[in-house]
Amino acid sequence: MKVLQLCILTISAAYLAGCASVAPKELVDARSAYQTASAGPAQELAPADLHKAQLALNEAEQSFHKDSDSTKTKDLSYVAQRKSEQAGALGAIAAAKSTKERANADFQKQQAAIVEQGKKDLRESEKQSAVTQAELEKQAALKTAKDTADAELKASEQRTAAGQQAAAVQAERARQASEQQAAAEQRTAAAQTELARQAEVKAAKERTDAESQRQQALIEQGKRDVVEAEKRAAVTRAELDKQAALNRAKASADAELKASEQRTAAAMAELAAIASLKEEERGLVLTLSGSILFRSAEASLMPAAQVKLDQVTKALLTIHPRSLVVEGHTDSQGSDAYNQALSQRRADAVRDYLVQKGYPANQIQARGQGEGSPIAKNSSAEGRANNRRVEIVIQREVQTSKK
To answer: pLDDT tens for residues 338-373?
Structure first.
């Protein structure tokens, strides 16, 4: 293989020497890359890839022979260079892998030798431990046999002394038993007499206790009957008190409702006298003419308007406060945006005045309606005056169910 490569390089060099054209840089780099790869481990460890690089270099050389300045020569040279570099890299990787495998094999051999030596040392240590253990067990057995013999001798001596003491104790116990028997017979007779007396006393006490328990049971039953009667009476009184309270509450509620209805009717009559009041689907609508509230194109209340709104506020506060919506309206004079802003300012002015006079602020809303809800034609001065208005919508009171 090396001979073949050297021949190819020699032929290429001779060919190049005979040519007038200078090889491009890409071809020079490809030749250098192939020489470097051939001198490395790729010759033995990656011969197939090195052969591919050789074929690619030959193809580049042939292209250079045909056309020294062609782009194809440079492209083929670049491919040959990359294949040579790849063959060199693969050879280096294979060499590193081989070195690693040899190192791993050496490491495995060393570990196996260390383990085997450890096993030998362990077996030798176990043999020595077994001999030592056997000697210790022999010494322990001899000591145990001696201790057993000594204990048996001492126990025999103790049993002999105990037998002698037991005989003396037995004779003393026989004498004491005779005396105790006589005393026991005397105590038995006295006990029988005492038991007879106690039995009589117990029977009398039991009869007395039974009678006492019967009397106590009657007393307890009487107490329970009294407590039960008092409970029933208390329940009855509570029910009567509850009913009376309900009747009073109902009467008070009816009176308050009647008074409220009367106040509401009077307030509605007063509102109807102040301005136009009519029932609509959205609620009661109080219509105030714009000519008595504001000057033309203005949103500030006139003095006469304040007097009128004082009357409206007084009437509204007479009844239970309801939610109000103050709506401002204009005629069609001016742009839609201008009329919308003017109607909102006028609605805000009326709302703020009602709040200032004591109406709950959280129950009033102000809405500008612009010129979008006319009630008359804007073609006449009278119609436009009717359209320039403020409407106070008194919303219906929410009804709650009563038990």
So the answer is: 999 999 999 999 999 999 999 999 999 999 999 999
Last residue of a domain, one of 99, 114, 129: 114
Work out the burial of residue 380: count CB atoms within 10 Å of its CB; fewer than 13 is exposed, 13-18 middle, 19 or more buried. exposed
Q: Is residue 372 a part of any domain in this protein?
A: yes
Query: What are the angstrom distances between the C-alpha of 362 and each of 322, 324, 355, 359, 365?
Result: 10, 10, 9, 9, 8
> Is 7 a residue whose pLDDT tops 50?
no
Mind giving me the DSSP string for 103-133?
HHHHHHHHHHHHHHHHHHHHHHHHHHHHHHH
Residue 247 within any structural domain of the chain: no
Q: What is the CATH number of the domain that holds 313?
A: 3.30.1330.60
pLDDT tops 60 at residue 279: yes
Nearest CA-CA partner of 98 in 49, 45, 50, 51:
45
Evaluate whether residue 198 is within a structural domain: no
d(CA 197, CA 201): 6
Determine the pLDDT at residue 149.
63
- The helix (H) or strand (E) run that includes residue 73 is helix 71-274
- Asked if 80 and 57 touch (Cβ cutoff 8 Å), the reply is yes
Task: Kindly tell me if the per-residue pLDDT of 237 is higher than 90.
Answer: no
Q: Which long-range contacts (CB under 8 A, 24 or more apart) does 290-299 make?
A: 290/329, 290/330, 290/346, 290/385, 290/388, 290/389, 290/390, 291/385, 291/388, 293/346, 293/350, 293/390, 294/346, 294/349, 294/388, 297/334, 297/342, 299/342, 299/345, 299/346, 299/348, 299/349
Indicate the pTM of the whole model: 0.40
Give the end of a domain, one of 92, 114, 136. Answer: 114
Q: What is the number of structural domains in the chain?
A: 2
- Please say whether the beta carbons of 267 and 316 come within 8 A: yes
Does residue 28 fall inside a structural domain?
Answer: yes
Cβ–Cβ under 8 Å, residues 328 and 343: yes
Q: Give residue 163's pLDDT.
A: 58
Instruction: With beta carbons less than 8 A apart as the criterion, state whether 33 and 85 touch.
Output: yes
Q: Where in the sequence is the domain holding 48, given as residue range(s)?
A: 2-114
Q: What is the pLDDT of residue 10?
A: 45
List the structure tokens of 284: 């009661």
Model confidence pLDDT, tens digit, residues 79-127: 999 999 999 999 999 999 999 999 889 889 988 988 889 798 888 878 8
